[in-house]
Amino acid sequence: MIRTRRPSRPSRCNRERSWPGAVACLLMFLTIVCTSATMMVQNVGPLTMPDPDMHVFASWALATGQSRNPIEPRVDRNGNTLRKQPITGPVAVLGRGSHMRNALLSDILYDEEQQIVIPQDKALTKQRRALTAAMAQDVVTVRSARANQYFPIAYAPQATGIRLALSKNLSLWDALTWGRIANLTTFVAICCIAIMFAGRWRWAFLIAAANPMSVFCASSLMADSTLIALGLLIGSLTVYAAQRGGAGRPVPAPILVVAGLVTIVLASVKIVYVPLIIPLLLLPNRTVIWWRKLMLTVSVLAAVSALAFWWSQYQYVAPSPRTDLAWNQQWMLAHPWEVVITIGINLLMYTWRVPFDEMFPYLAPIVLAYILTGRGQRHDADININASNATAARGPVATAWRWLTTHTMTISLILVYGLSMGATFGALMLTWTKGSTFTHGIASIGGFQGRYLWPLLGMLPLPWLDAGMHKKIDDIRKPAQSESSAVTTADAAPTALAMPTTPVETAAPVETAEDETSSQLATTDQHTTQQPVSSTIPAARLAEKPAEQPSRKSAAKPAKSANQSTPRKKKNRKRRR
What we know:
Keywords: Membrane, Transmembrane, Transmembrane helix
Distance between the termini: 55 Å
Strand order of the largest sheet: 1-5
InterPro entries: DUF2142_membrane (IPR018674)
Largest sheet: 2 strands, parallel
Structural class: mainly alpha
Number of helices: 24
Transmembrane segments: 21-41, 181-201, 213-235, 255-282, 294-312, 332-352, 411-432, 452-469
Region (Disordered): 476-577
Number of strands: 8
């Protein structure tokens, strides 16, 4: 039985060589993020962002302990029951005089008319004046807030900064600025951990994390920065686990625990990001033991289900105007296949529309960075040939199974994007699509924003990881195959080249030690001269020692009778006498 040698861990020198690259990547990331975030904080007001009535209100509610305020159900003109949560706070932050600006990220980051990157906010002066005025502390209660739309844990960094500023009696402008800095600090810390675990993919993760859209979300009060950072973190943990699996080492239990906690936090904010845990569950059993996969799956699903059930009693669902939630839900449950077709076509339509969309300049560099990083991880041609030859004789079922088992990461990438984006479009179909369009062809689902894709960018290396894993595994198996083939060739060699197996005639027993020694030398010389050694004998055959033939030393020794004794024994007998 031939045992395959377990691949050794990387040497200390190789591990030390990787540290300079990681440190350089982190320094580059910190330089880019701090520089761009400083410009954004100076040029953009704290109340300018997409959906400020949701992010600002939720941050203020959590900072002041109002996240558990009682819910006031209301019925709108379409018959939808909405769970409104009243929030009390300063007029300059929550009132109509706060000069909030609801704008798209593309409009905030680039001014097409003046052709300026990160232009000065149009409402910056008004917001500063309102937040620093003497009347800014006037209290108002807002009953139409959206503070309970997302789970409060998404606003923990912003609320921490605001709470610290309020405890020091700072102005409202400084309080919101502290919230922005705390959000940025949390984003940078999580992204640094993700870059450290990404290995050779660290530079691609740097571009995804230092993207202007990611940095703006982190430098504002938006909760999307936390989702983006956690999405990159679970992607880097998947990369780390796959690389360890390719090296023949199992994944440590703390990595799985952290991945499960990150998935629970992501799903508590947006349940559409639950599929991010799928790649870890599809890793081979040699990388992640099956019972650990089972425990991870059960614990994540149980925690997410419990949080979703509890939060559904307080969550605010924001429908678009002229949308009947009850009618849409009834129609979607009665026509499941039509819903699947509608979601699939809208996904394709969005894919075709991306090159002409305003999000393409921000998304293209990230995808290009992943492609350039993974260009060296490919299957060798001989590996593909061996795989096809091994499966050709087994039939199409075995061939399909071989393809599935060697492309698990690619399949998991398709599942992650398909399920996450499908669930996102399904939620938008329920809440943002007019029901009358369902019965007149394929409905166009609106309300999708490009930043919903950013938490999924950490999964883009999966296809190249798949190739790298199986390439390493095949490289490990090659030495074992070569050894087995060498042994087989040696066994099939002609018998003329084999070593003699006939026993050598031994000399007769003698009485004295001198005669015995001379007979042994004579027998050894005779055995040496009668045994020809061919230069054509394989090295593998010469290295072997068959069990049935005696060695030279044992063959040269004469057989001893029961009464024969060695010279030492004779001397001992004489001494005893």
